[in-house]
Amino acid sequence: MPIDIPTTAADDGLRVRTAFLVVQHENGEWEAVADTTQRVTPDHVPTVIEMKFGASEVVSDIEASKQAAITAHQLMAMTAQMQQAAAHQSLADKLKL
Fold first, then answer.
1. How far is CA 78 from the centre of its chain?
2. Is the model's pTM score more than 0.70?
3. What span, in angstroms and rounded, lies between the C-alpha atoms of 74 and 78?
């Protein structure tokens, strides 16, 4: 839904704080693209359903990446704890001898 936002007089472009594009590649994958200077040639004007689905897919991918990073961090911390426990156990075993 277009909104009436003032533009600059110099270049008649839309003045915004930040911008990105949500694109669907020919293979069907959705991607958020931060480089707004990159030329984009769409096959057709998007429908509202495509806009909603594309935005949803990008948010889902971001959340999945965030969760994967959290999980990887937890696994690394758990591995370090297990290594430390194994080292303590090894030292305890040596002291018993």
1. 25
2. no
3. 6
